[in-house]
Design goal:
Thioredoxin-like_fold, Mito_Protein_Transport_Metaxin, Glutathione S-transferase Yfyf (Class Pi), Chain A, domain 2, Metaxin_GST, 4-stranded mixed sheet, Thioredoxin-like fold domain-containing protein, mainly alpha, about 290 residues, Glutaredoxin
């Protein structure tokens, strides 16, 4: 039986291809202006920040970004900071790191940054493998984070507009859509964090969330007061857990100083957390004036 003609090239097209055969050329390199804004010698850490603050090396206003920015500085890994967004991230979240162009262009997500630091910087103090660590980490990831999310994204006096929305677009409709998207995402995260997925946004109570965040900070302060070294879990040097706590204590003190939860940072366990915050700042940003950070 003759082969079906459905896959055969029509004769007019075949004559055209015979006259002008298709050629496959090697890929053309992108023009220099469209290459990623990376450095030939330094890795680039993409975070939530502004262009001005990135150029000055200031701390990010996002807790996750600030945690890793702090760890890189503590480990003496020099990086270039550039502002970015979740949409530009290969994993959909920030931060991520691009190695120098001379080495690789494979992005490194936050989940792999500990390995990168171990390879390229001073060793990080390993966190103790204990259920106690998990319990205290949960205080950061749930009540403290929930309070931060509400204050920044859902509270009428929050900072989300200035940090995330206004720099993204001048168009009112786009800003409106971004604002609603951020609010919905923050509310969803809080509801997941509280285990109350059946509730609605209007059911969330800032006073309750802030109170739980304060209680979590007080528990962390009591834990730190037990340490003889001034670092969590009696570590000789600050580690990942210290950076996780600092990311919130610094931002709460710096950006929501009018809230009760900021006062808790300064007073809990006789100011233990605030002393820790200052020590971390002095180690990661030595010689810097805190008023300028």
């Amino acid at each position: 039986m003759a082969a079906s003609s459905w896959a055969q090239v029509p004769k007019p097209l075949q004559r055209l291809f015979d006259r002008f055969p298709l050629l496959t050329y090697d890929a053309t390199a992108l023009p220099e202006r469209s290459r990623p804004a990376t450095d030939d010698t330094l890795p680039t850490l993409y975070t939530f920040t502004t262009s001005e603050e990135a150029s000055l090396g200031h701390p990010s206003f996002n807790p996750s970004c600030l945690k890793w920015q702090t760890l890189l500085r503590l480990s003496k890994v020099p990086v270039r900071i550039l502002p970015s967004t979740n949409h530009a991230s290969p994993t959909g979240t920030l931060p991520f790191l691009l190695p120098p162009r001379s080495v690789s262009q494979t992005p490194i997500p936050a989940s792999k940054l500990t390995d990168y630091i171990r390879t390229h910087g001073s060793p990080l103090h390993p966190a103790p493998v204990t259920p106690r660590l998990d319990a205290y980490q949960a205080l950061i990831d749930l009540p403290i984070r929930n309070a931060w999310l509400y204050i920044v994204y859902l509270h009428s006096g929050g900072r989300a507009d200035g940090w995330y929305i206004e720099p993204a677009s001048k168009d009112r409709l786009i800003r409106y859509a971004l604002r609603n998207g951020l609010r919905e995402a923050a509310a969803s995260e809080i509801l997941k964090g509280t285990g109350m997925l059946s509730l609605e946004l209007e059911d969330l109570d800032l006073e309750v969330l802030e109170k739980r965040g304060q209680e979590a900070l007080e528990a962390l302060a009591e834990l730190l007061r037990e340490s003889e070294t001034g670092w969590f879990f009696d570590a000789e040097e600050p580690g990942v857990f210290d950076a996780s706590v600092f990311a919130y204590t610094y931002l709460l003190s710096r950006h929501v100083s009018d809230r009760d939860i900021s006062g808790t940072v300064k007073t809990a366990a006789g100011g233990t957390l605030d002393k820790h915050r200052i020590r971390m700042l002095e180690m990661a940003w030595p010689g810097w004036d805190e008023e300028k950070l």
